[in-house]
Amino acid sequence: MVRGARQPQQPRSRLAPRLTGTVEKPPRKRKSRTEFALKEIMSSGGAEDDIPQGERKTVTDFCYLLDKSKQLFNGLRDLPQYGQKQWQSYFGRTFDVYTKLWKFQQQHRLRTSETSYLNEAFSFYSAIRQRSYYSQVNKEDRPELVVKKLRYYARFIVVCLLLNKMDVVKDLVKELSDEIEDYTHRFNTEDQVEWNLVLQEVAAFIEADPVMVLNDDNTIVITSNRLAETGAPLLEQGMIVGQLSLADALIIGNCNNQVKFSELTVDMFRMLQALEREPMNLASQMNKPGMQESADKPTRRENPHKYLLYKPTFSQLYTFLAASFKELPANSVLLIYLSATGVFPTGRSDSEGPYDFGGVLTNSNRDIINGDAIHKRNQSHKEMHCLHPGDLYPFTRKPLFIIVDSSNSVAYKNFTNLFGQPLVCLLSPTAYPKALQDQSQRGSLFTLFLNNPLMAFLFVSGLSSMRRGLWEKCQEYLRKINRDIAQLLTHSRSIDQAFLQFFGDEFLRLLLTRFIFCSATMRMHKIFRETRNYPESYPQLPRDETVENPHLQKHILELASILDVRNVFLENTIDDY
User: Fold this and answer.
1) pLDDT confidence of 118, banded at 50, 70, 90?
2) Which of 366, 361, 365, 367 is nearest to 344 (CA)?
3) Can you tell me whether residue 441 is helix, strand or coil?
4) Nearest-CA neighbor of 516 among 501, 491, 499, 532?
5) How many of the other CB atoms lie within 10 Å of CB of 31?
6) What is the pLDDT of residue 119?
7) Omega of the bond prior to 539 within 30 degrees of 0, cis?
8) What is the pLDDT of residues 24-59, one digit of tens each?
9) Distance, CA of 154 to CA of 150 (rounded, Å)
10) How far apart are CA 406 and CA 338, in angstroms?
11) Higher pLDDT, 103 or 513
């Protein structure tokens, strides 16, 4: 299945027709649900400050057109089924309103990855919960109404997960559990097993983090992994980097047996969070000392647009990739994140081309047993349900940033930059040490390093919990490490310029520094001793100036000393692998 606000069948068009004039709203006797939702959204304290007046008017106009189209469509069903002419005028009016609605959606397509819209949804769902909107459902002998209530809870949980409101998620999960128990007790329906599976999935999802951060009273601290204002290392004077910015990202998840909820795997969720900015309340920013109404007014910071593709087929993946490529603005970057099962080449090949090293699996209708696909085919043929490195070649005509987390990630280091555009591939280890506790179902260690490097560092160090004070101390030291890594990259004389071209963007800068920290940590860890245990990249990074730099190694040992886990790391500088 595929998630994404923009559908490739109707991609955004700069030539989309515009509606002229304003939409007049006739008086209504009964408020619709859209009006109720809008009222709750606009009356919520935080959301209103983040939504400009123009966008609030857009939502209002859209709600009116949506309600009008539904009224006219429902009216068509009340017309007599005989005769040939009496329905034509009604049909014409209905068609005209639906046409206006479609044009309005094309012109004012709401961007995904805009946190204010998630806040709107949260306000809407919260109002339903606070006003006990579904309180009477359990008193009626109608299972379809109960299912509607259960779906509301599932959607509310997804919104809270995306907003990192884990405390609310836990309350909702408890309420959902009670509702499912009541539902299965009252009605003997076929979907009981499915709803219990939903409950198990969300419970496993919120417990996927391998390390708990605790307050002094042993309550769990909710940590945020979005990009904060001080998250990415700042560009210092003298650093020469490119001016590219991350505009679009395809986040693809196709790992067997990984914890998921609502077509969102743990790896997809973590990468999604890594590509989000921490919400900033503009009203509170304006109240800062020295902030003036004119030139000092803070600008709204946009998140990159994201497609979430859960187990897509090759056709679906390629369609969305082509749509994103087509719409990519000038001086922008397309990011592709692949978390998928590896597909390895069969037999021997006389050539070493972009289709001879395998790749990652795309969805198909074949049976999966123990994570391995069962299929019979001629070994001289290439795997058709596989995204090969060569499949991405056409899209290297524009700046491309690729992250591959797979058991065959190294297939993507055999790239050839045909068009001279900036191109970087960050590749996960293809295997992890057997001595390391298997956490693959709860998400990949490599993606965890890119999302929450301190938590990943604690995990490989054998720690499962930490006090909040020590956590914050280590986070501050990790920010220092990131600043030093940024200096190592920008001062390197032998580094490929592609890395520096991407380094001007905050998201990509943070991903690159975390990648180097991940690689350096694994190379110094005592149980990571095989080459396949280390991340790789295309183009290759100069080891002595980055992942094996003595200055960086010293920092890692100091961080280990703060945590009292220095014994799991090698003390001496490693030169050969």
Assistant:
1) confident
2) 361
3) helix
4) 499
5) 10
6) 81
7) yes
8) 333 344 444 444 544 444 444 444 455 556 667 777
9) 6
10) 8
11) 513
Token output for 567: 């014994």
Question: Token match 């070649």: residue?
Answer: 393
DSSP 70-125: HHHHHHHTTS-SS-SSTTHHHHHHHHHHHHHHHHHHHHTPPPTT-HHHHHHHHHHH
Residue 253, beta-bridge partner list? 310, 339
Alpha-carbon gap, residue 327 to 559, rounded angstroms: 43
CB 200 within 8 A of CB 192: no
- In order, the DSSP letters of 379-426 are TTSPPSSEE-GGGGGGGGGS-EEEEEESTTGGGGGS---SS---EEEE
Token pair 């014409």 in the structure block, residue: 92
How confident is the model at residue 86, as a pLDDT? 63
Q: Do residues 423 and 498 lie in contact, with contact meaning Cβ atoms separated by under 8 Å?
A: yes
Which residues, in sequence order, are CB contacts of 553 under 8 Å at separation 6+?
520, 524, 573
Sign of the CA dihedral running 259, 264, 268, 269: negative
pTM of the model: 0.77
C-alpha 327/C-alpha 332 separation (Å) is: 10
What digits encode the pLDDT tens for the residues 319-362? Answer: 999 999 999 999 999 999 999 999 998 766 666 788 888 999 99
pLDDT above 50 for 312: yes
The rounded percent of the chain whose pLDDT value lies above 70 is 77
Pairing of strands 386-387, 359-361: antiparallel
